[in-house]
Write a structure and sequence with these properties.
Rossmann fold, homodimer, 6-stranded parallel beta sheet, about 15% strand, DNA-binding
Chain lengths: ~375, ~375
Amino acid sequence: MTKRAISIATVAAEAGVGVGTVSRVLNGSDQVSEATLKRVLSTIERLDYRPLRSASSLSKGRTDAVGILVSVITRPSVMARLVGVIDVLSDAGLDAVVFNVENRAQLDRHLSSIIDQRRVDGIISISLRIPKERIARIRKLSIPLVLVDNSLPNLPCVYIDDVEGGKMATEHLLSLGHRRIGFIGDNARSDLGMSASENRYAGYLMALEAAGIEPDFDLVARGPHSSEAAAVLASALFELRKRRPTAIFASSDTLAVGVIKAAQQHRHKIPDDLAVIGFDNLEVSSILDISTVNQPLLESGIKGASKMVSLLNGEIAKPHREQLVLDVVPRGSSLGIQGNIPTKLYGVVEGPHGLQILQGGEELVS
Amino acid sequence: MTKRAISIATVAAEAGVGVGTVSRVLNGSDQVSEATLKRVLSTIERLDYRPLRSASSLSKGRTDAVGILVSVITRPSVMARLVGVIDVLSDAGLDAVVFNVENRAQLDRHLSSIIDQRRVDGIISISLRIPKERIARIRKLSIPLVLVDNSLPNLPCVYIDDVEGGKMATEHLLSLGHRRIGFIGDNARSDLGMSASENRYAGYLMALEAAGIEPDFDLVARGPHSSEAAAVLASALFELRKRRPTAIFASSDTLAVGVIKAAQQHRHKIPDDLAVIGFDNLEVSSILDISTVNQPLLESGIKGASKMVSLLNGEIAKPHREQLVLDVVPRGSSLGIQGNIPTKLYGVVEGPHGLQILQGGEELVS
DNA sequence: GTGAAAGCGCTAACAC
DNA sequence: GTGTTAGCGCTTTCAC
């Protein structure tokens, strides 16, 4: 219809007011009389006018967008954090610009473009270590930076104590009487600073030492972060025969799934022949009845993003640095109590075409 | 240091040229002499200048960002598509602005802000049906729109034939001699237009009919999209005793996991007492040896985003509408052949501190 | 309260 | 080739 898109000027003209007034209305200023407010509002409505983001960004000097750097986004734990972040930002009216980082080159490239083009007002880093020199630069430009699942002095962050978590997991197995405890973890990814697995390994060693057990590096294995790889590694450990571990601490639930699968194929009974504990408390560990260390994944994203929102509002992030609590969730894979499916949460009813569980409560409300 | 941020004018002044020239350099115009190019470039370098996104956006009339509407982002299948989309956009220098949609209200809200504030140049919708009136509006504003895992006439999209997929899965079970085949799927989410599960159900019915089998609605159950819910529903089906299904088609692998868990708890041997097939071919189905229908998830994201890139370049999306192929992946949960862990892909070596699978090939290269 | 006008930092059309 | 200038659409003084 109209060749030229309608702008604030159009609205001002139509409403018979100045552009300043329209702008005030748009930004919810109280410096506008009841009457003009109404008139402008109805004109906006009638013309179906919406302000252009980039114009107001330029003028205001901010983008109302936050950049999110995510390490290997496909990992369920990372995903859960991301969801928390996105939801909070969304509610705050901020755009979530997501960057997937799978290697150091990508990290550098994305950081450059984000920082230098000032396309976002703030940066949230998930499970990623930002290189020192970048941090310095970000600081100099005074761009808010929040770390989720990572911690650095003087920087707002939400994190857990992976060392402690690894210790807790190992102590759980020790408390069950195990002495030959294996560890299966991720390859070190120093390029991305994903140190969770190695930190949990450190906790594993500490727990062993505290129990007076000499660590046996033949029981330690690392590989890519996949169930398949973990299964292969577990199988390799089983080859030790008599010297094989009676329990395995897998540094994540994804790995634990592979370990359990491998045990089944080798006809090792869980947990009698092999006890297993994972880490993260993913949905899969609950359904497969895998003992694990629970960490608040979604919450970490929510808290991290909340800090960002505060910072962008010129406030100070309340708890500047926040450590979330961990707790061991003992299940069948170590205790041997066959965990039942939590039917209590669900009410099965007769639906129009078969049985049905209606959503609500724990689930989405449609 | 400098109170005023450095702008293109600063650079121009410092380099002793006009802003136009600097702009040309920035945008890689060939209308610049070798000498000036060098001078401007070095000035930019020296001043550490980077153009401001929002300013160029306003001027150019585009944002170089793409909005991605994602239905219930946590679902692994959705995630995989999203990763494909983000990676392609990233490579094309486009920002990926992600919106998580969990209900109709959110869908409306996000669509409004995206469309009306023109904060993005294009929209990619993943596993989501955009309401008719919105489509009309998007069309009128001539904002490129690409559908991933969804299809609508006259719109560029990447999709699969879920009905056919459901048929294939059911036929697989029929070919194994099963006659009492159950179906476990998602609750209909007409608000978000997530019709995959219902379409697969339609295929299930078609396959039964083609085999001359009267559908038994007692063998059909629906619930929230979680393993737990599926386990509860499967347990309910087992209560039918003699009339219980000998095979179950779960409309996704996530549900299939729950079904298998429930079967194990009821001491039903897989696949002798109960055969199971899922859908999606997620990693979990491979490790748990679950038969499934493979669909190219990552690829759907890649292809969808590629179409968007084409559209934004003023080209026409090559295959306007693209249907991806499905194929049944028979595994132990229906065939009963104990699938082995694919060790061939991995080489276990002695690492510095225990065994190790080095990454590469199928895995990330660090 | 409200209008007018001066930017925000960049691009692009136009002169030279 | 290169400089100049007029916008892009909004926000924000600053008068009135």
